[in-house]
């Protein structure tokens, strides 16, 4: 007993679209924390964008009764019942990057998309003034991307009413679609000053369109890919806001492991009578990094991953 | 023996459990027209497919000019100088007649670019003798008999030493057939050897030098045509003598009218057609290719086109809007294009026979009874002398003639009031043909109306009590009783203009 | 011995009397059953968790609702059609029912309305195919895009939380009768009913005729356009039902549900013997196809195979399975 | 006059002599040209930016590379096949070339190797279709999954940054010759070459024969399996070329590139008159199909139509366009 793991004690990180590079640094953080406690880890989930398959993979994780699962639920409500069942089975659940608030999960860790949006809005205004034209690309259907966009628009409307939203196109992380949409937006709005893009895939296409059109529109986006990094270095993209993925995984592990070790905690509350896990962390912000020309070199995932095991 | 171009010895071929060819021996001489006869399913087409490289034999030897060869594909057969007109029409519907005709030439040509004008010009030349189809039309838009002509033209343009014609005249009328025979004779005189498969004895005896008879995948005999009689061939084919090729005709014409068609017109195909069908009578419809016979029958049954005019059945005027209405009144149509719209090639024999009215083999709640379905096709199959493996086999696996029997069985399955049969015995062997004719006569006597469209004049003459002749979408005349002769029908069918183009 | 005897001489026993084993070996679906069985055996050795009740339950839940879609798709394929809109029409059913429910409509009525709407969408496609004369592929592709757009419009791109659905409604998707989840019971009822109907009823036999040779079917007096219209409509109606079950199961409606699902469903039907040219196919086979695909995905997840290998393995198994099935069927002939 | 007279009475002049306007009106592609023209006119009024050189340039860049894919797809469709793997094979070309380049291989050699690999993938599919006898649909679906998996494997799911590609290589994707982007010049060269070849060469004529009736073509001595093998291979080879151009253009290789692209490409070919049953189609038509789809997307973006309406409008225009085209072609006959 104690805080260290017993032999074979395993923690699982379950995600959808498991081939997506976003998870890679998250899982590295998760693993690093786990190793510190002598725990084992498994990366699981489904390669598909398919809720049925993710639930099936989650239930299959559950069958092996791991100590805990750090879960990225593709959707909140469908996971309520499986999460509760897992907890009843003795597997602790913490969600990350997407939540299932109505379930009994003991914690949720994410980057604050509203904070990102606010930062982006202020930066745009600082760069192009508070009465300019701006456009956004978006990815309706994916909640964090959606929030980054809607929060920015709301913030602009509330604080900088002279900022004019002139283009809003769905490009769904597809750089070719983003390329086409951006080309049209730039054509239709010769005075366009700035663009906010909630993910990096679309940013790649947008910057290609910007360069081809010879436009000097300011591009800001969230997340990062090697290509957008290079564009940041070259000054084609102004900056990117990148969630602290490593922290997300690291603290995610901490949250789920502590929930599993709740017996070492004797809190001042009603846990003994209510039967609730005393280690409840309703919300944790993992923060975000601002990537600019100066610090871009530190964000090369391929460099980071050299010599590390992705799975 | 130096004049034997093709020699086949001890050749066998099976399809699963079905032994289609069993130790066949066959030889073809230079410059002869060699007929091959045999019942449906005797293995004629299979042998030809082997010669053309479409099928590979299980055992046996093929020798060309004395040298053993293994023919692995039609491409190779072509290179060896073998041309083949298939029993089933195989043309590319999306391309023009001209391109279809010269498909093989295009394939082997060393030219990089297509010369469409030359193709059309050459096609027109190739057609000059046969017909007057515009070479630039798409094959899709041709009637089935015109497609047959394209098939023939296609083979005639091939530069070949051996030409195989598998029932080329099945859908042709006398005129075209005669033209074809003239061309065949020319080719033979130039030293080309021709294998000619047909179920029409007259054609064999008028045009061929030798005849080989097959039965059950075996070679029975090969004889000089000059030395034998048609009945000998029939005897060798079916193993018995068929003395009455055609059933007796109607003795006392009835006065009761079964069907009356008044002023039927269709914008593009036929106009102002009126005729009647009496009870117990078999009515024939004759005409040249494209005269509009098929269209007329389809028009009466509302299968195609925008038809105006009246149809009266048993004294009642029918209000027909679709073919379903027609079937509901007991009028059915047997298509001339069995592959295109007659049978379901990939479905079982039993399912094909029951297709016209599946409800018949279903019990309460509309559930199909496999047993009833099999009983139905078993009974009709016996009646038509259908030769097949199992009733669950797909129709695709049957020989051409047996497929036709399935199509007929489908028509007979519903106990119709009136049947239009378009080329009913197309590809059917002599024995089965006389069975079918007998069945038609029996049905007529039982009060069922029978209308037969046929391009084979002897059939019309032998079976029908009365024959209508069509020309260019109109009825040009009618012959009854002893007047039903080839001369009379041909005179009404062609006349001046048409015969002029055919000359 | 010669098997091509004429019928008169033939003395073949009717199919019903053939021994069970022989009949099994003659079935189209046998190859698939054997492949699935082989995977089952391999997996039981590979993972101690595979043959547990919980795993079987999780695996069957993963394909049960898709099973309804594959039924509709198979029947449509048999009639000679195809439907690319199944994924987005299923999503639309969830979204519309959820939207109505959140707007205060009784969930059962909302569901009925959503299913009716999907049926209408099917009829709409059927109209364009049979009356206008367009190809199923292009019509259903357009509808796929439109329905996805409608999902966005109803939800603003955000999933609808339907946590407040009454328990008796959620029971359809989450409840169990005894040890058996309701979803799986519904699935089995549909499979058995449609498999039986497709094999035995005159109504569905006409679907085969139509798909095998539309012209010959028309010449046999079958209203082929009506048949195609109905199979198209049925496929969408089943999407509606599937959407409602998914909604009850997840307690939410997702506008992005079922992206790319159409290809999985078509693949399952084709693996199960449905011909893309129409005229053949079976419900049993199609369901085995869904099971196979789902089994492979579940097994890869259970074995914690690296994601970077999963797609490669999945594609390879798919290709291997159809190849093996193809040869087994060829041999059988 | 009686139309059922013998065809000799008809004096149809050979196609070449008909006046230009009449020939234009008789072409299969005319309907599409008119629809696109109508959209053009509407858009010129709706947006002042539409008819600018910069917008035209941007719009053509948007469809130029997809144009290569549609050429391959059209030829494959004509031969009777279909390919669902175009999106992921294109992605794989980028990824492999990028991976090799990052590993130190000269970018031209890396590209050649990637194109060769795609050609190999096409040959692999061609083998399964022609030798094993599986359907194009299922084979290409499996390859679609496998190729996507391979993309993941090569990149670990991470896009490869290829910013260091030499300028002369990037020139293919980003450069201009005079006012004309290289991409568009490449596109035009391919379109004109393949359109001409498909119309005029004996080699490509065999593709039509094979697709129209494989049996008839085989009976005429055409090696239909070889034809199908080659069209399958060609389609994948063109994916390889397109992938390389995209790589040069974006300066990156994305493992997720082209998800769902196959349906757009097939839709474009079908709108342009390619038959899903084989035997007909034209490059000109297919390119017009791509242009139409791309024009609609660009126009919606240019007019800043709400995201929530875009898909609905897009799907509706697609359906309307094929319907109008269908009626225009029917009339013409
Ligand atoms: N693909 C096949 N599969 C199974 N059996 C076949 C196949 N093709 C032909 N057969 C069988 O082979 C036998 C010979 O057929 P074939 O077509 O050679 O007959 P045929 O002499 O040409 O008859 P017909 O006069 O009717 O054309 C028949 O019993 C037929 O059922
Ligand atoms: N789909 C079609 N479109 C245009 N014309 C057609 C079509 N089908 C048939 N025709 C034409 O209609 C005319 C009548 O054809 P029909 O098939 O009725 O002739 P038929 O007397 O039955 O002769 P056969 O069947 O021997 O060709 C012919 O000139 C034929 O070319
Ligand atoms: Mg034959
Ligand atoms: Mg006719």
TrEMBL record, chain B:
Transmembrane segments: none
Keywords: ATP-binding, Cell membrane, Membrane, Nucleotide-binding, Repeat, Sugar transport, Translocase, Transport
EC code: 7.6.2.13
Domain ABC transporter: 6-241, 253-497
Any Pfam family hit: ABC_tran
InterPro entries in the cross-refs: AAA+_ATPase, ABC_carbohydrate_import_ATPase, ABC_transporter-like_ATP-bd, ABC_transporter-like_CS, P-loop_NTPase
Protein name from the UniProt record: Autoinducer 2 import ATP-binding protein LsrA
Top-level taxonomy: Bacteria, Pseudomonadati, Pseudomonadota, Alphaproteobacteria, Rhodobacterales
TrEMBL record, chains C, D:
InterPro entries reported for this sequence: ABC_transp_permease
Entry keyword annotation includes Kinase: no
Presence of the UniProt keyword Transmembrane in the record: yes
Keywords, in A-Z order: Cell inner membrane, Cell membrane, Membrane, Transmembrane, Transmembrane helix, Transport
Alphabetical list of CDD domains matching this protein: TM_PBP1_transp_AraH_like (cd06579)
Membrane topology value: Multi-pass membrane protein
Top-level taxon in the UniProt lineage: Bacteria
GO molecular function, one term: transmembrane transporter activity
Subcellular location as annotated: Cell membrane
Pfam families in the cross-refs: BPD_transp_2
GO cellular component, one term: plasma membrane
Membrane-spanning ranges: 31-51, 57-77, 84-102, 108-130, 137-157, 177-198, 227-250, 256-276, 283-302, 308-328
Description of how the protein assembles with itself and partners: The complex is composed of two ATP-binding proteins (LsrA), two transmembrane proteins (LsrC and LsrD) and a solute-binding protein (LsrB).
Purpose of the protein: Part of the ABC transporter complex LsrABCD involved in autoinducer 2 (AI-2) import. Probably responsible for the translocation of the substrate across the membrane.
UniProt-recorded name of the protein: Autoinducer 2 import system permease protein LsrD
Organism: Pukyongiella litopenaei
């Amino acid at each position: 007993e104690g805080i260290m793991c017993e032999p074979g004690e395993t923690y699982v990180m379950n995600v959808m679209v498991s081939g997506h590079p976003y998870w890679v640094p998250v899982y590295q953080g998760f693993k690093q924390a786990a190793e510190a406690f002598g725990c084992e880890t498994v990366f699981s989930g489904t390669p598909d964008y398919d809720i049925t398959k993710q639930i099936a993979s989650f239930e299959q994780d559950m069958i092996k009764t791991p100590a805990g699962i750090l879960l990225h639920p593709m959707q909140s409500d469908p996971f309520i019942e499986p999460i509760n069942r897992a907890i009843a089975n003795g597997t602790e659940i913490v969600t990350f990057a997407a939540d299932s608030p109505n379930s009994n999960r003991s914690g949720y860790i994410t980057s604050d998309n509203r904070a990102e949006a606010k930062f982006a809005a202020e930066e745009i205004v600082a760069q192009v003034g508070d009465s300019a034209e701006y456009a956004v690309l978006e990815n309706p259907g994916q909640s964090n991307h959606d929030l980054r966009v809607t929060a920015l628009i709301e913030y602009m409307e509330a604080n900088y009413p002279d900022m004019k939203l002139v283009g809003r196109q769905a490009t769904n992380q597809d750089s070719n679609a983003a390329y086409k949409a951006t080309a049209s937006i730039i054509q239709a709005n010769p005075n366009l000053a700035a663009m906010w893009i909630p993910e990096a895939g679309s940013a790649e296409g947008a910057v290609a369109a910007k360069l081809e059109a010879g436009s000097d529109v300011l591009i800001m986006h969230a997340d990062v890919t090697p290509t957008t990094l290079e564009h940041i270095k070259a000054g084609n993209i102004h900056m990117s806001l990148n969630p602290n993925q490593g922290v997300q995984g690291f603290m995610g592990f901490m949250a789920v492991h502590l929930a599993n070790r709740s017996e070492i905690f004797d809190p001042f509350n009603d846990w003994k009578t209510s039967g609730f896990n005393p280690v409840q962390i309703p919300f944790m912000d993992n923060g975000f990094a601002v990537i600019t020309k100066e610090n871009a070199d530190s964000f090369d995932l391929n460099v980071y991953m050299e010599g590390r095991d992705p799975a | 023996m130096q004049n034997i171009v093709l020699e086949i010895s001890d050749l066998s071929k099976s399809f699963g459990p079905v032994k289609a060819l069993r130790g066949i021996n066959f030889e073809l001489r230079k410059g002869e027209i060699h007929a091959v006869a045999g019942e449906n399913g005797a293995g004629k087409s299979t042998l030809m497919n082997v010669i053309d490289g479409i099928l590979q034999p299980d055992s046996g030897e093929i020798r060309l000019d004395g040298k053993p060869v293994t023919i692995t594909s039609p491409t190779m057969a072509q290179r060896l100088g073998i041309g083949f007109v298939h029993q089933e029409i195989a043309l590319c519907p999306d391309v023009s007649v001209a391109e279809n005709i010269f498909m093989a030439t295009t394939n082997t040509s060393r030219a990089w670019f297509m010369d469409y004008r030359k193709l059309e010009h050459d096609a027109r030349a190739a057609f000059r003798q046969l017909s007057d189809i515009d070479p630039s039309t798409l094959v899709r838009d041709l009637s089935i008999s015109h497609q047959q002509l394209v098939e023939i033209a296609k083979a005639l343009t091939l530069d070949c030493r051996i030409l195989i014609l598998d029932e080329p005249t099945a859908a042709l009328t006398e005129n075209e057939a005669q033209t074809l025979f003239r061309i065949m004779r020319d080719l033979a005189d130039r030293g080309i050897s021709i294998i000619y498969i047909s179920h029409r004895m007259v054609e064999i005896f008028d045009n061929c030098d030798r005849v080989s008879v097959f039965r059950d995948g075996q070679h029975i005999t090969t004889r000089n045509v000059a030395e034998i009689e048609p009945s000998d061939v029939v005897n060798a084919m079916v193993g018995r003598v068929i003395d009455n090729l055609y059933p007796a005709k109607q003795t006392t014409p009835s006065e009761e009218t079964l069907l009356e068609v008044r002023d039927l017109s269709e914008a593009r195909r036929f106009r102002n057609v009126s005729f009647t069908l009496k009870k117990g009578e078999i009515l024939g419809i004759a005409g040249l290719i494209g005269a509009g016979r098929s269209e007329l029958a389809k028009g009466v049954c509302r299968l195609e086109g925008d038809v105006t005019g009246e149809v009266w059945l048993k004294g009642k005027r029918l209000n027909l809007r679709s073919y379903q209405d027609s079937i509901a009144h007991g009028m059915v149509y047997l298509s001339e294009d069995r592959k295109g719209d007659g049978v379901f090639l990939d479905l079982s024999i039993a399912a094909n026979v029951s297709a016209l009215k599946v409800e018949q083999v279903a019990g309460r709640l509309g559930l199909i009874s496999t047993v009833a379905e099999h009983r139905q096709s078993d009974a009709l199959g016996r009646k038509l002398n259908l030769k097949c493996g199992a009733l669950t086999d797909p129709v695709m696996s049957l020989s051409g003639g047996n497929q036709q029997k399935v199509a007929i069985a489908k028509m007979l399955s519903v106990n119709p009031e009136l049947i239009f049969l378009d080329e009913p015995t197309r590809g059917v062997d002599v024995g089965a043909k006389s069975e079918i004719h007998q069945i038609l006569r029996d049905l007529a006597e039982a009060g069922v109306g029978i209308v037969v469209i046929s391009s084979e004049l002897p059939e019309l003459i032998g079976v029908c009590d009365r024959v209508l002749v069509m020309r260019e979408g109109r009825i040009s005349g009618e012959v009854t009783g002893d007047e039903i002769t080839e001369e009379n029908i041909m005179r009404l069918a062609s006349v001046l203009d048409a015969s002029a183009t055919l000359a | 011995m010669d098997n091509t005897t004429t019928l008169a001489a033939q003395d073949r026993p009717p199919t019903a009397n053939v021994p069970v084993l022989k009949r099994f070996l003659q079935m189209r679906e046998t190859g698939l059953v054997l492949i699935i069985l082989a995977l089952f055996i391999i997996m039981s050795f590979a993972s101690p968790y595979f043959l547990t009740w919980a795993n079987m339950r999780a695996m069957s839940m993963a394909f049960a609702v898709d099973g309804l879609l594959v039924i509709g798709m198979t029947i449509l394929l048999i009639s000679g059609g195809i439907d690319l809109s199944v994924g987005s029409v299923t999503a639309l059913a969830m979204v519309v029912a959820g939207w109505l429910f959140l707007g205060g409509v009784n969930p059962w009525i909302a569901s009925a309305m959503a299913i009716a709407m999907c049926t209408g969408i099917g009829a709409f496609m059927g109209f364009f195919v049979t009356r206008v004369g367009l190809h199923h592929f292009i019509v259903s592709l357009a509808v796929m895009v439109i329905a996805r757009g409608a999902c966005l419009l109803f939800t603003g791109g955000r999933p609808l939380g339907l946590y407040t659905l009454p328990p008796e409604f959620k029971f359809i998707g989450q409840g169990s009768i005894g040890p058996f989840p309701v979803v799986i019971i519904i699935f089995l009822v549909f499979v058995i009913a449609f498999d039986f109907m497709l094999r035995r009823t005159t109504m569905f036999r006409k679907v085969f005729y139509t798909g095998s040779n539309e012209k010959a079917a028309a010449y046999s007096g079958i209203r082929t356009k009506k048949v195609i219209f109905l199979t198209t409509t049925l496929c969408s109606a089943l999407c509606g039902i599937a959407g409602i079950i998914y909604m009850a199961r997840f307690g939410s409606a997702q506008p992005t549900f079922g992206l790319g699902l159409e290809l999985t469903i078509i693949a399952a039907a084709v693996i199960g013997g449905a011909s893309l040219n129409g005229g053949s196919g079976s419900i049993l086979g199609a369901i085995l196809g869904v099971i196979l695909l789902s089994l492979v995905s579940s097994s890869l997840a259970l074995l914690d195979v690296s994601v970077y290998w999963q797609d490669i393995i999945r594609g390879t198994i798919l290709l291997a399975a159809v190849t093996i099935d193809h040869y087994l069927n060829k041999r059988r002939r």
